[in-house]
Amino acid sequence: MAGIDWQHGVVELAHGAGGRSMAQLIEELFIAEFADPEARGLEDQASLTLPGTAIAMSTDSFVISPLFFPGGDIGSLAVHGTVNDVAVSGATPLYLSAGFILEAGFKLAELKRIVQSMAAAARAAGVRIVTGDTKVVERGKGDGVFINTAGIGALPAGRRLSATLARPGDRVLISGSMGDHGVAIMAARAGLSFDTRIESDSAALNGLTAVMLAAAPGLRLMRDPTRGGLAAALNEIAQASGVGLRIREAAIPVQEEVRGACELLGLDPLYVANEGKLMAVVAAEDAPALLAAMRAHPLGREAAIIGEVVADPRHFVEMETVFGGRRIVDWMAGEPLPRIC
Amino acid sequence: MAGIDWQHGVVELAHGAGGRSMAQLIEELFIAEFADPEARGLEDQASLTLPGTAIAMSTDSFVISPLFFPGGDIGSLAVHGTVNDVAVSGATPLYLSAGFILEAGFKLAELKRIVQSMAAAARAAGVRIVTGDTKVVERGKGDGVFINTAGIGALPAGRRLSATLARPGDRVLISGSMGDHGVAIMAARAGLSFDTRIESDSAALNGLTAVMLAAAPGLRLMRDPTRGGLAAALNEIAQASGVGLRIREAAIPVQEEVRGACELLGLDPLYVANEGKLMAVVAAEDAPALLAAMRAHPLGREAAIIGEVVADPRHFVEMETVFGGRRIVDWMAGEPLPRIC
Predict the structure, then answer these.
(1) Exposed, middle or buried by CB within 10 Å (0-12, 13-18, 19+), for A147?
(2) Where are the CATH 3.30.1330.10 domain residues in chain B?
(3) Closest to B56 (Cβ–Cβ): which among A21, A45, A228?
(4) Residues in chain B with pLDDT < 50?
(5) Which residues of chain A form CATH 3.90.650.10?
(6) Statement: residue A40 has pLDDT above 60
(7) Strand B317-320 with B244-248, pairing
(8) DSSP letter assigned to residue A133
(9) Stretch (H or E) spanning B113
């Protein structure tokens, strides 16, 4: 059987059909790039060992368009997204699965670039891609490549962070500027060019969450504000904990270029997705130590205390604007941003 | 905000955009149907407890067309497929994640039917769907619904089954008739009608694997012959273990209707996918006990010893045909069957 033409070849239906072409693709691409001892045995599953018996499990499918964007691509994003969902629970992300849905005709060279990017992102985050799956759909029934990752992480005994644990008096923090990812994607789609190129903030947050957990025993919860942006994350917390939140617009870092692009595109940075930022709620007495720990980490240099939890039977998220007024930060209003992750 | 119109409504881009529509869909459909305590907290991940520290992890994406077919649908299949991949490793499947990629315009009534079918299949198999994700793509960029499931199961200490463990003298068994699933799908697609309707064998095999593990300490490996059929599974084993396999065509059960449809469609049942069958390799002395245990289980009534492992440096799978000849059973030859799972 002829080798795979990585330069000019495209995905064919046979690459998902269970025969030799599929075995060859798995062997030459996925097993070679992910290079994991557990994935090498050609089994349909990985056998893994955990440090304890408590785990966190999460999954996300990635359908982002375009597949390659300033600051990342669907491969690195698929690793970061699930690593972050596991990490914000307080767990240490360990293992990922990867499921690919390929459209026939997709260039193998692009697929390889994406898989290499995934492998690099996993190595950088210290997680292992241990099992996977490849399906192929006909042209016009997919869009290049969709990737699902599921992740598991180890939860230390007794650790429990939860969206339900915010209490009046707690402080609300974010790790950095809001809106970078979503604006980078929308700008790339709209073909906008700015003086300063806006890059996605896509990054694995498990290093940052580890220092936060060590610094603040009073940490109630962490959350990565992806789709729906900070506004959605804040509203979910208010709802789940049965509290209100009061935040200050002036305290929320937004890059100048992002703010400008948002004005051009008619977006509000608070509703725009982030892929390398988190918000946290912490007991007031631990807030200074948490903030210091975050700022000492490369991914938390711009961390800020943006507000506090209050008693509010309406579970409103209310913002003091830069003009001194107050407004309700509701769930997403207006047009949604499709395929942002 | 208006309620979801489950009768006439369709999937919209907003259902995947992170705002209130998405929260509503998750709440009213996924959380309501999967009804899992871990999934109720609106967290982005589930916190789980395992009986031990050794686990098996697997993932599969499902892109089957049509979505509903005789004997099942994409929802039940997405549960069975991953439960089986975990179970054949010797693990006890416990938890599943579920990732949905929906095409805008897909009928919410059909989505609900699929999710209900998933929930029922999970209950029947004794596994819990604990975390999930929903993405929406534009019309023409997907095909109704794709589902990814990832699964984890508990591995008892010291248990190790592997595709590498087949040794000359071992026996090869299958749990029942071959080709039912693939032929049911191809027949449904081709619009063929037969006197007896052929149904997919889609089923969760974890009950069967449990009795097999208990009956046969000498069990080397199990495998569910899905894409590529029995032929692919046998060739993978031969390759991974560095052995040859000798099987007898007359010993392989194939339903009469499946055989007839295969002739009509130009298919060979050995290359056609199964979704509720397994093959096993076992030490010769344990083969009778294993066969008896399988036959005593509802999903193994037609179990059979179909051949044995031999020393063969070429790693060939050779079959004694019903006519007394011998032929090599190679990997899939001819046209692949796309989107069979």
Answers:
(1) buried
(2) 13-154
(3) A45
(4) none
(5) 171-328
(6) no
(7) parallel
(8) E
(9) helix B108-125
Query: Is some CB atom of chain A closer than 8 A to the CB atom of B242?
Result: no
| Residue A26 and residue A6 in contact, taking contact as beta carbons nearer than 8 Å | no
Q: What are phi and psi of A108, to 5 degrees?
A: -65, -30
pLDDT digits (tens, 9 = 90+) for A80-134: 999 999 999 999 999 999 999 999 999 999 999 999 999 999 999 999 999 999 9
Question: What counts of helices (H) and strands (E) characterise chain B?
Answer: 9, 14
A140 CB neighbour count, 10 Å cutoff: 12
Q: For residue A225, give the chain B residue with the closest CA.
A: B18
Cβ–Cβ gap A44/B85 under 8 Å: yes
Interface membership of A34 toward B (CB under 8 Å): no
Question: Taking CB atoms and an 8 Å cutoff, what residues of chain B touch A162?
Answer: 41, 43
Three-state secondary structure call for residue A45: coil
The minimum CA-CA distance between A104 and chain B, rounded to whole Å, is 11
% of chain A with per-residue pLDDT over 90: 84
Cα separation, B133 vs B110, whole angstroms: 18
DSSP type of residue A289: H
Cβ–Cβ gap B46/A56 under 8 Å? yes
Any bridge partners for residue A103, and if so which? A137
- The closest CB to that of B45, out of A23, A56, A133, belongs to A56
Q: What is the ipTM of this complex?
A: 0.96
**Residues B56, B61, B65, B69: what is their CA dihedral angle, to the nearest 10 degrees?**
30
The neighbouring-strand residues paired with A46 are B57
Residue A68 burial (C-beta neighbours within 10 Å; 0-12, 13-18, 19+): middle
- pTM beyond cutoff 0.90: yes
The CATH topology of domain B171-328 is: Phosphoribosyl-aminoimidazole Synthetase; Chain A, domain 2 (3.90.650)
d(CA A329, CA A332): 9
Residue among A200, A174, A187 at smallest CA distance from A267: A187
Contact B336 A21 (CB under 8 A): yes
Matching residue, tokens 């037969």: B194
pLDDT band at A44 (very low <50, low <70, confident <90, very high): confident
Q: Give the model's pLDDT for residue B331.
A: 84
Judge contact between B339 and A18, C-beta under 8 A. Answer: no
Which top CATH class is A13-154?
alpha beta
In whole angstroms, how far apart are CA B75 and each of A320, B8, B27, B104, B152? 46, 21, 18, 18, 18
